[in-house]
Specification:
By secondary structure, the chain is of the alpha/beta class. The protein has 2 domains: 128 residues, Aspartate Aminotransferase, domain 1, CATH 3.90.1150; 234 residues, Aspartate Aminotransferase, domain 2 (3-Layer(aba) Sandwich), CATH 3.40.640. It is built from 14 helices and 17 strands. A hairpin with a 5-residue loop joins β8 and β9. α4 crosses α11 and α12 runs parallel beside α14. The chain is globular and about 75 Å long. The two termini are 44 Å apart. Bound molecules: pyridoxal-5'-phosphate.
């Protein structure tokens, strides 16, 4: 049986190696089904999923509300284009406006596409202000360790060189500010800046929360010139932190925010939510998309939001996330290789003292049928479905405990071996 499994996986691997552009270095698992917080491989072996498709599957797998929305909407209408009305956009936009504290929505398909649109809106808004006689430039201030996506504008505002360098020249006019460094922000801010760009918690950057002090400084500075404060909530938003949006923990309201990953429960959908003031700069024909905000994606997103509400998942995320962090802190006391535990709600990280250990832990968790990943080289990242329970957390923490103990024992044995040989 396991030979058959190997061969099927090997077949796929060989076919992909020939047929796909080699952008991904996949783990050697073939998933075929999901149920709750578990994924099943082609032999029915169950994996506990603490990554939820990089924060996408917030309701887990096989949630009846999502299945029903897809079944019902797919029988009525899947796509019409943005040339005509359908029922979904206004109904979903109302839910997003109510929860963000902002006024208007533009629907895109993915995270990077939402972010790309937000950059265009910010430049257009500054252009409108200039036409009205205000001195304001075109420059963006983005953060060090930021991640905003892979298209040209998004990648230009993404800090890591490896994402930008092979594709240069990228969009010009971006300067990076040291993360959470208010004095660096004050130095670099001027009326040349059309927008300050932040994530409320840096995701790919290692689950690093923006400080309230920095958020308030950015909010005040941008208000002095008419520049925009734009918060990327693509990974953080939609309830993961125990509130609908990460900036709601910081006591600020941005001019514009972007949402995507969990928005439509795995069906691609992104959104820009902005103020009336930002939207004043946009007129019919200036921006658009063929697929964005289609009937199917909107119907599913409505079902996702209503399920999060109905099932009390914000409170649940706070409770289980708090428990998760407590248990990891307990582990940290016994394992000095954990240098820091941080996060908010069910966006949780344990930073390790070496990149090698990070890789090893992810691999051994996979062998124990638990899915996590390591970002920013040393940061174990947990983005479980919001329906995860304390019992699942216990399972993960116990596995991590065992793996870290093994690693220490092995390293000690290696060191001892090295000594006796040397
Ligand atoms: C994933 C992510 C993006 C990009 O989203 P895609 O759907 O992959 O294009 C942008 N910003 C943040 C914070 C993200 O986590």
């Amino acid at each position: 049986m396991s030979e058959e499994r190997k061969s099927r996986l090997e077949e796929l691997r060989a076919a992909e190696a020939k047929l796909l552009v080699p952008t991904y270095d996949r783990n050697a698992v073939l998933f075929e089904r999901g149920e709750g917080v578990h994924l099943m491989d082609e032999n029915g072996v169950r994996y506990l999923d603490l990554l939820s498709g990089i924060g996408v599957n917030a309701l887990g797998y096989g949630h009846p509300a999502i299945e029903r929305a897809i079944a019902e909407q797919s029988q009525k209408l899947i796509h019409t284009s943005n040339l005509y009305f359908h029922r979904g956009q206004a109904e979903l936009a109302l839910r997003l406006v109510e929860r963000t504290g902002l006024d208007r929505v533009f629907f895109a398909n993915t995270g990077t596409e939402a972010w790309e649109g937000a950059l265009k809106f910010a430049r257009a808004h500054a252009g409108m202000l200039r036409a009205e006689g205000k001195p304001i430039g075109r420059k963006f201030l983005a953060m060090e360790q930021s991640f905003h996506g892979r298209t040209y504008g998004s990648v230009a505002t993404t800090h890591k060189l490896k994402y930008r360098e092979p594709f240069e020249p990228v969009m010009p006019g971006v300067e990076f500010v040291r993360f959470n460094d208010v004095s660096d922000l004050r130095t670099k801010f001027s009326d040349e800046v059309c927008a300050v760009l932040v994530e409320s918690i840096q995701g790919e950057g290692g689950i690093r929360p923006l400080s309230a002090e920095f958020a308030h400084a950015a909010r005040e500075l941008t208000r002095t010139t008419g520049a925009l404060l734009v918060v990327d909530e693509i990974q953080v938003g939609m309830g993961r932190t125990g509130r609908w949006f990460g900036y709601q923990h910081l006591g600020i309201v941005p001019d514009m925010t972007t949402i995507a990953k969990p928005l439509a429960g795995g069906i691609p959908l992104g959104a820009i939510v902005c103020t009336d003031e930002v939207a004043r700069a946009i007129h019919p024909g200036m921006h658009g998309t063929t697929f964005g905000g289609g009937p199917l994606a909107c119907a599913v997103a409505i079902a996702v939001i209503d399920a999060i509400e109905r099932e009390g998942l914000l409170t649940h995320a706070t409770e289980v996330g708090g428990y998760f962090q407590d248990r990891l802190r307990g582990l940290q006391k016994r394992h000095p290789s954990i240098v820091e535990v941080r996060g908010m709600g069910l966006m949780v990280a344990a930073e390790l003292d070496s990149a090698e250990l990070g890789k090893q832990v992810v691999q051994r968790m996979l062998e124990r049928r638990i899915l996590i990943n390591c970002t920013s080289e040393t940061v174990l990242r947990f983005l479980p479905p919001l329906v995860v329970t304390k019992a699942h957390v216990d399972e993960v923490v116990e596995a991590l405990d065992a793996i870290l103990s093994e690693a220490v024992a092995e390293n000690a044995a290696q060191t001892a071996g090295g000594k006796s040989n040397g």
